[in-house]
Structure prediction request, 112 residues.
Amino acid sequence: MSSLGKFSCGLDAAMAVVDGKRKPLILWELKDGPKRFNALHRDLPGISQKMLTQHLKELQRHGVVHRESYHEVPPRVEYSMTAAGEELLEALNPLGDWATKHINLICAAEAG
Prediction:
């Protein structure tokens, strides 16, 4: 087995981390600092609480999101990006630039 474990290349491994329609958007929402679950849910229209919870757990498991639980009454939980998450978001920026450049092509493909 290669040094990449079960992955065929680095891109394959990276896609395992961001696989899912909303994971890159969750990272984008965390770019300016920690957010509570309800704020994330409010800022990501169209995602269910169940799916947001699942994605956050997966991002935590991959080491790109940190969950901080404060022992207060009422309980408070905040999510933030780790250094690895910040690097990942930085790596995704060129992909966003590419999509912006080719948005007409993408929209035409989605329409038909």
Notes: The beta strands are 35-36, 65-70, 76-81.
